[in-house]
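Q: What residues go here?
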């Protein structure tokens, strides 16, 4: 009974801390965007060359890839123009077709907050305007790269804020650019070889650091989407990815781990991964963890009780992850700053040279 009491107190402390009494912003409860993309009903009712279209809700990405491989360019363009939101978010569809579809879909919203995403030099791999909006962007050439990494971010990230001014090399796009530059692949997009990086906001993230950030509801929904996203990369012939998972994004990665073909899983600034040990994640990927000395995430208790809290600290010896040096990292978002030990280590992991 005494042990139960201590656990309850610790869990209550976790909610209190995550809820904002330490001065952090309290968050509003978010409704997770799930299921197939907007426009799916019209897509299902359509055909091309007399053929039924693959159902976005049930067709495996490999089936989608095979379907598009059997179409000529005219048929592909017909689907692109008629159903840009479906094509742009359809895992397994050809990537150049998705980029073009998402330019159309972004422009069709007529919303100024999304306008920059429609620029001709952007490679927007996914765009969903529902809720706060979801977006994924490619830096490099995923199909011809030697290595692919995916940035999975945490709270307060969405399509509307994706291009908002930030401190350089923070936020999903900033992290993606910094990682690609650190691997020696350059900042330009559309070039083959080297390392391609995807900034992936493909799930509904928590807002602020409130109850949504303390429980796993949004992470569970995000894990399903992340697993399908990685299956989509595989379907178009991309290399097995490295997942770089920041803050609440590491909860998503922890829940998705056993359902992805990632070679490496890197948790940084993590509140926990909903597993007691790296082995309990059920993945064949190498698991890495980093936490800087001034990262406030260290103040969040590593407990899980009645669905609140995310469990063991991934940087603890007991968890069993490989440690990433981060002694010179400043704050919660400084892991990709030039010259840091963490960025150098991340680049080596991304290139497959870390041991």
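A:
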């Amino acid at each position: 009974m005494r042990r139960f009491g201590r656990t309850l107190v610790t869990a209550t402390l976790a909610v209190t801390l995550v809820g904002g009494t330490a001065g952090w912003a309290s968050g509003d409860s978010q409704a997770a965007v799930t299921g197939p993309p907007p426009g799916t009903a019209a897509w299902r009712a359509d055909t091309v060359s007399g053929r039924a279209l693959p159902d976005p809700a049930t067709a495996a990405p490999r089936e989608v890839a095979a379907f598009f491989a059997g179409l000529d360019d005219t048929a592909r363009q017909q689907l692109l123009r008629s159903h840009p939101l479906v094509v742009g978010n359809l895992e397994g569809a050809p990537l150049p077709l998705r980029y073009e579809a998402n330019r159309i879909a972004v422009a069709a919203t007529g919303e100024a907050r999304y306008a920059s995403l429609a620029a001709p030099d952007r490679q927007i791999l996914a765009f969903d305007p529902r809720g706060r909006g979801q977006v994924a962007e490619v830096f490099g050439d995923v199909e011809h790269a030697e290595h692919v990494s995916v940035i999975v971010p945490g709270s307060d990230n969405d399509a509307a804020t994706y291009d908002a001014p930030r401190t350089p090399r923070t936020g999903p796009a900033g992290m993606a650019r910094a990682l690609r530059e650190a691997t020696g692949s350059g900042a330009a997009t559309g070039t083959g070889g080297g390392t391609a990086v995807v900034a992936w906001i493909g799930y509904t993230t928590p807002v602020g650091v409130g109850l949504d950030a303390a429980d796993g509801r949004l992470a569970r929904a995000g894990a399903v989407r992340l697993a399908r996203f990685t299956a989509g990369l595989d379907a178009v012939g991309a290399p097995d990815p490295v997942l770089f998972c920041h803050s609440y994004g590491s909860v998503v990665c922890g829940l998705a781990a056993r359902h992805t073909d990632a070679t490496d899983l890197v948790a940084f600034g993590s509140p926990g991964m909903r597993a007691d040990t790296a082995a309990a994640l059920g993945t064949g990927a190498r698991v890495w963890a980093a936490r800087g000395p001034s990262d406030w995430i260290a103040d969040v208790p590593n407990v899980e009780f009645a669905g609140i809290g995310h469990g063991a600290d991934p940087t603890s010896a007991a968890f069993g992850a490989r440690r990433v040096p981060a002694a010179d990292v400043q704050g919660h978002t400084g892991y990709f700053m030039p010259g840091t030990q963490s960025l150098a280590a991340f680049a080596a992991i991304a290139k497959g040279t870390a041991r």
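A: Context that may help when evaluating the design: Residues 1-25 have pLDDT under 50 and may be disordered. The beta strands are 47-48, 51-52, 124-128, 134-139, 147-152, 195-201, 241-246, 264-268, 286-290, 322-323.
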